[in-house]
Description:
Blueprint: E1 3-4, H1 20-29, E2 34-41, H2 57-71, E3 76-83, H3 89-97, E4 103-107, H4 127-144, E5 150-151, H5 174-186, E6 190-194, H6 195-203, H7 213-221, E7 227-230, H8 243-251, E8 257-262, E9 265-270
Parallel strand pairs: 1-2, 2-3, 3-4, 4-5, 5-6, 6-7
Antiparallel strand pairs: 8-9
Helix pairs in contact: 4-5
Amino acid sequence: MYTDNHNHTKHFSSDAKMSAHELIDACKALNMRGVAVTEHYEGDYPHDIGEPQFFDISVFFEKTKEWTEYAGDLPLYKGIELGYQKHLCAFYDDLIAKYPFDSVILSDHLFDGKDPYFFRQCYGEDMIYVYTRYIEEMSDMVENCNNFDIVGHYDYINRYAPYEHPQIKYSQCPESFDRFLAAIIAKDKCLEINTRSVDKMIKNGHSDVLPDQEILSRYYEMGGRNISLGSDSHSSDTLCVHFPKVAEYLASFGFTENSYYVGRKRYGEPLLPKN
């Protein structure tokens, strides 16, 4: 009974495998409260992978009319995941203002101008150096851009890291994390807890897979309350993956709601079932 706030379909995200109907069918089978379709929009993506990493937004809204009808009683929210680069902030702010999105995720898929998925050489640098640089860029992202709701997967950088203990932690760069979290709170944005990151860590054989407790406790201590659960699903078998486990973990820090957005307005649903 959760809303999953981060998902991709093969219609508009080139790396996704599921159709919108497969997504909706799986959501209904899981008795989900709602689902956001947040297709990739990567302006000036630095890697040539044979397909554009952006889409025609007008066509997207036309397609979602049919998807919404097919979804019936299942709330289907129209979203987008923007790929940050500093020179794109003003463009993104203007672009998003033109369309009736429900939610906008802003993510950084790049380190040193390249995607670590393709650019594994970045991990040849010291882990603290890499993670500090990445969180500093995430801070720049939140401070420089405005027209978004959710800060996507702050831990993207550790997904493909070959380090023995790759989980990103507050203690590795506390000043950078304080800057990052303060920017989120100052702009009343939402920190995403991306369970695709958790799932990848599990599949890679790591035991320390949940978001670092110091990051969460520091965010709460600083006044942060807005948390968004997103499975970042590209196929229907990972919808809401690990949500109950992660929700219970988040509640232990004092968080009470999973945030979701309708018409760019934040709403909250309980992280844990009410007694």
